[in-house]
Input
Amino acid sequence: MQTQRIKTGVFGLDELIEGGLPKDSITLVSGNSGTGKTTLSLQFLYNGIKQFEEPGIYIGLSENIHRISLAAERFHMNLEQFSRDDNLVFSDIPALEISEITKIVKSIDDKYKRLVIDPISALTFKYEADVTMREKIRELVELIREKEITAIITTELLENSNTISRFGEEFLSDVVIVLYYFREGARRFRGIEIRKARLTNHSEQIHLYKISSRNPLETGIPCGIQVFPNEKVFS
Ligand SMILES: Nc1ncnc2c1ncn2[C@@H]1O[C@H](COP(=O)(O)OP(=O)(O)O)[C@@H](O)[C@H]1O
Ligand SMILES: [Mg+2]
Output
């Protein structure tokens, strides 16, 4: 049976993963601060509503909703309109209570097809990354799996860490996407890697990506994260 695909609509990304994320799967997007995890998540939700009539939910753990909306606007995504129309639900969890996230997930209505939790790693400010925490994250993931929803969970990696998650989230996810910010001499460039993707014949290269707010009418490329599948970061 063919796996149904949910297009992220992010320029260049879907073609690295057979056309999109497997329907109702959980994807971990991990990377250092400033690599574009929030941008990617917002594009996933925005495109879902705009192009595919799939309402979405954003659960924010590190920035308040106002700042998130402003960030989206820089990339020409007007989220407030979608929020007024109830196609997008914004929740922030300033207290960083995992039980609040669980409560929201439990109450998700069938009409919502896309979910983002950004970034789950913020919970380390409040909880030890210990066995209890891992167990709670596992329970949260189980709850998400009970819903017919395609989810992106982001996690912020510490500078110079050589792991790709904070609580072992990668083992709970179907797809793992890692965002890198490389340095070569005085030059910085960004790379995206599909580290794992169940049910998917995925690219095994690190590909170049850019973050741009140039008006798409000027460049012909939708702004935000732009992936260039034919440009490898290292040859
Ligand atoms: N207008 C812009 N043009 C190009 N890059 C931008 C623009 N605005 C933000 N960025 C880049 O995007 C990064 C922030 O992305 P964000 O999605 O918030 O990252 P993360 O959530 O991983 O911390 C900034 O560090 C900056 O490099
Ligand atoms: Mg962020």
Remarks:
- The domain at 5-232 is CATH 3.40.50.300 (Rossmann fold).
- Helices lie at 37-52, 65-74, 79-84, 98-106, 131-146, 169-172, 216-219.
